[in-house]
Amino acid sequence: MVLWNKVFILIMTRTMLPFLLEDLTRMLAMMILDNPFPSSVRSSL
To answer: What superkingdom does the record give (predicted)?
Structure first.
């Protein structure tokens, strides 16, 4: 049972890892792209 759980977790992480990495990179890119602009707009306003 424990071995099956490990195999299942391994398969799930293998299949979900690309999606998680894509979401993480997208969030990071959005943070990097969004953060400078609002602050510069606020300072200019």
So the answer is: Eukaryota
